[in-house]
Structures are given as C-alpha cells and as structure tokens.
Amino acid sequence: MLFIEDFLPFLRLEGIGEKTRIFSDFFLQNLSLSMSNASCGSGTAELEVCRDESVAFILKMVAIATILTAGVAGVGIPLVGKNRRFLRPDSNIFFTAKAFAAGVILATGFVHMLPDAMSALTNTCLPTFPWLEFPFSGFFAMMAALATLLVDFVGTQYYERKQEKQRAGQLARVDSVNSVSSADSGIVEVMDRNGGKVFGEEEGGSMHIVGIHAHAAHHRHSHPHGKDACEGNVVEHSHGSHLHSHSHSHGFRDGDEEGSVRHVVVSQVLELGIVSHSIIIGLSLGVSQSPCTIRPLIAALSFHQFFEGFALGGCISQAQFKTLHASLMACCFALTTPAGIAIGTGISSFYNSNSPRALIIEGTLDSISAGILVYMALVDLIAADFLSKRISCNVRLQVVSYFTLFLGAGLMSLLAIWA
C-alpha cells in the first residue's frame, strides 16, 4: 500500500483532474465566444459609410421582384417548353443550355460559396481554437459531397426497386391476360420430354397451332453498327428463311427507364443543394442596410437564379414528374431566395451579420452548399451528359457544349468581382 502511494506521483494522476477542468473551462469559453452576437472586425465601419436604410429597403423589394421573376422564368422554360421541338429535353438547344447552366452551378460552388465559407470560418473574430486551427470549410464541403453521394446512391436504389416492383406487377397482369386469351382461342402447349419443343413445332421454327398454321421468325436481330450506332438507327439481320418474332433495338433510348430514375434522384438532390444556399444568399441580402452591397447582388443573383432554375427545370422535366409534383418543386425553388430576402429584411434590426455566431452559421451552411453543388455539377450534370454516347457521336454538339460550359462557368466566376 505504501508502495502504491509512493508510485502515484510518478504517474501524475493527481494532475489529470486539474487538466480536465482547465480544458473544459477553455472549451466552454471558446464556445461562448463562438456563439457571441457582438460585432467585430472593421467591416462594420466600412459598411456604415454607405448605410441608408430607406434606399436599402426599396432595393430589397426590387430584388425580391427581380429574383422571383428570374427564378420563375428559369425553372419554367424547360417545364413549359418540353412539348416544343427546340426545347424538348432531347433537343441540342436544350442540351447546350443545360451545359451553360451546369457551368454556372459549378462556378457558384467553387468561386462563390466555398471562398465565402473560408472567409467566414477563418475570420479573426472567431476563437483561435478550434476555428483557426483546422480547415473546417473544406472539411464540411467534403463531407457534404460524400453525404450527397450516399443520398444519390440510396435514392437511386430505392426508385429502381420501386420501378422493378411496378414492372413485375404489370408483367403479371399481362401474363394473366395472355393466358386467358390463349385458353379462349384453343391454343394448347405441350412440352416434348425428349426435344424440349412445343407440340407442333417444326424444324426451323415453324409453329402449328390448333386450327391455325402460323410461321414465326427465328433469327431477326436488330443491332446498330458503326455510324448507325451513333445515329440510333437499326440494322436488321435475318437468318434463315423464316422471320423471327422478336427483335432487339439499341439506340439512344436504351436505358430510358434507368435514366428516368436517375433524373428523379438528381432533381431532388439538386433542389436540396440549391435551396440550402438560396436561403443563405437571401438572408445575406435581406439583413444588409448598404445600397452599395445590394445593387450588384441584384444583378448577380438574378443571373445566377435564372440559370440555376434552368438546370433544375431540365432535371425535373427529364424526371417526368406529375404536373402537381413538378409545380411544387418549381415553386419551392423560385420562392426560396425571395423568402430569404424577406426574412432577412424582417430580422435586420437585431440580426448582426458580423457576429461570431452569424459567421459560423453562414460559413457552415455555405460549405455544405458548396459541397452539394460541386458534386451535383460535376457528377450528375456534367459527367452524365458529356460522357454520354449522344455527345461523343456529334462533333458539332461537342464543340458547342464545351464552349457553353466554359462560358457559363467563366461568366459566373466573373460576377464574383461585384458580388
């Protein structure tokens, strides 16, 4: 017992409780500083020079009307025009416009959202520990991108299984109808134990049905080759003297059902990312009392809202939702940013955008939005379209699509000079 008492000081166990208490006090102190609503930094003094609440309020109302109009037009054009020849989802004009919109979304994530998140989460107003000792903005963006991948995967699996069950139910109903009609027409099928042929089947595939002599084709396969594979044409090959009753056609429409499932998931995940950052940019504009800040934001956000809406509207159109579902998704997108501006205007009297709490909240949400938008732009919009057979078989479409993609990303990046 005396040996243990003599040995304890060497283990320094008596200092663990003291160190734990010091660390917990330090952590709680930094947490309280992080949640502070007090102003900090020199940004407030710079904005006070251009502060004019009455002019700012008028500009906010203009912003709500302008951004709402741009959002409705952007998301509505693909939905309303999907029955028009030049605005159908399979038209080249729609494809190139969607490439431009994908460039806008990619630049929004990389050039607008992620730098804003870095600036907010590395602000000197925040406590050094933990905010200035770890790159939280990049970490949050990475985790958001991985979470989006998981949601993308799980959502696709869910809708594919749902579609398979519906298809199985339809096939079961068709089989039951066929069996009833076969019984009514007197068709009798008896399998030969030796050859495995249906009773009445001749060599070469001819079929004798009770009361009817019918010849069924055996080898008619339709496969595209060479240029026809790009154009989606069908080349028929017949084997033997009899026509075959089944054929295979491989064109651009292969996998339409799987593509529809992907568009269902993509449209919903993309809207999630867009809505999350639309709330932030709406609040940022709404709480501002500086006309110098609001004026450039109106033009930038209108441009951004229009083409973001066009990309989302294209995905909704390709997903083939019912009219009510598509309208609800479109309205949710169009109203989010104006609603954010209205909320920001209402809380501008007591909301301090330069406080540590506001910086942490905005920086975290900006990081998450950036991760979602970058993933969606690269994986579900750009890669899905630019690695498809459609663009690889059309050189002119390749050139125009890549040009519009870089143009959209470049113009949206250029807007970072003003907003």
Automatic annotation (TrEMBL):
InterPro entries: ZIP, Zn/Fe_permease_fun/pln
Superkingdom classification of source: Eukaryota
Keywords from the UniProt entry: Ion transport, Membrane, Transmembrane, Transmembrane helix, Transport
GO cellular component: plasma membrane
Molecular-function annotations in GO: zinc ion transmembrane transporter activity
Recorded topology in the membrane: Multi-pass membrane protein
Protein family per UniProt: Belongs to the ZIP transporter (TC 2.A.5) family.
Protein name: Zinc transporter 4 like
Organism in which the protein naturally occurs: Actinidia chinensis var. chinensis (Chinese soft-hair kiwi)
